[in-house]
């Protein structure tokens, strides 16, 4: 059983850094044993410098995949992810830049193909959020930035990746429990996460005939740098006992999310597409 993590008041600035988090997050359970489920596969993961993206990269590597790590600007965190992937005996490529830029997304995909010779798994995980309790005070620029980061970058990368994907390959999109529960403080973020659910379902229907599976993961509260950089920045005290509202009474760890992405990336999910997994601490969302 995973022990409850005591989270205390703290804050960071966006996009947040893994190295500043207290307590540190867990990325892979010590007893997690790889079984070659992704042997020989090549994966591209956005937002993989920290949090859920880093956990996914490490789990993929332990299962035998080479990994390309895309991130915005957190060089130290990205180097640590690279170290952890390479410690699993796999190759790791790091690519820094802004996924709001379509040309950067296309160039990044080309770099992955040139480096590794192909692509089998795309994980659209990068995202951002901010807190705003009054829609009339939500700046147009914030609305546009949230959609550009969370949704447009996903579109650009997926569009570039599709010609390189084929039978038994997978696309996995990170949505959120907030797409289903609609928190009042994050209308813009929740709207993007709802769009990701619909994007996942429609794209699955479009490419399932090619043998490409498209699924999503909708995490509940997970201990990642985005939390102190958003909730903590708004009010550090809001992080006290973060996650305690879940039925399990605790925040999730990235180590508990990585296996979800392994499942959806591997042939364990060979008869699953257009679906969403809900690792959220027991909250029933009926979605």
Automatic annotation (TrEMBL):
Keywords, in A-Z order: Oxidoreductase
Q: Where is this region: Disordered?
A: 1-21
Any Pfam family hit? adh_short_C2
UniProt cross-references to CDD domains, sorted A to Z: SDR_c1
Q: Which domain of life is it from?
A: Bacteria
What family does this belong to? Belongs to the short-chain dehydrogenases/reductases (SDR) family.
**PANTHER family linked to this entry:** NADPH-DEPENDENT ALDEHYDE REDUCTASE 1, CHLOROPLASTIC, NADPH-DEPENDENT ALDEHYDE REDUCTASE-LIKE PROTEIN, CHLOROPLASTIC-RELATED
Identify this protein by name.
NAD(P)-dependent oxidoreductase
């Amino acid at each position: 059983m995973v022990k409850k993590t005591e989270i205390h008041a703290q804050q960071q600035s966006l996009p947040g850094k893994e190295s500043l988090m207290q307590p540190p997050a867990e990325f892979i359970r010590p007893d997690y044993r790889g079984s070659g489920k992704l042997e020989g596969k090549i994966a591209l993961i956005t937002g993989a410098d920290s949090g859920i993206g880093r956990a996914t990269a490490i789990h993929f590597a332990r299962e035998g995949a080479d990994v390309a790590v895309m991130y915005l600007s957190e060089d130290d965190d990205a180097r640590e992810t690279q170290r952890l992937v390479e410690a699993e005996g796999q190759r790791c490529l790091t690519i820094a830049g802004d996924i709001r830029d379509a040309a950067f997304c296309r160039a990044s995909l080309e770099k992955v193909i040139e480096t590794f010779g192909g692509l089998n798994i795309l994980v659209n995980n990068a995202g951002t959020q901010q807190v705003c309790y009054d829609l009339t005070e939500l700046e147009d620029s914030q609305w546009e930035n949230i959609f550009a980061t969370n949704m447009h970058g996903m579109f650009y990368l997926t569009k570039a990746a599709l010609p390189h994907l084929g039978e038994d390959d997978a696309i996995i999109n990170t949505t959120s429990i907030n797409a289903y529960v609609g928190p009042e403080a994050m209308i813009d973020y929740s709207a993007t996460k709802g769009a990701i659910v619909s994007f996942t379902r429609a794209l699955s229907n479009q490419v399932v005939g090619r043998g490409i599976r498209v699924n999503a993961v909708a995490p509940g509260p997970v201990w990642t740098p985005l939390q102190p950089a958003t909730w903590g920045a708004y009010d550090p005290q809001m992080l006290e006992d973060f996650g305690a509202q879940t039925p399990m009474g605790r925040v999730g760890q990235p180590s508990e999310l990585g296996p979800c992405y392994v499942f959806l990336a591997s042939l364990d999910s060979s008869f699953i597409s257009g679906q969403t997994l809900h690792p959220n601490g027991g909250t029933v969302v009926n979605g």
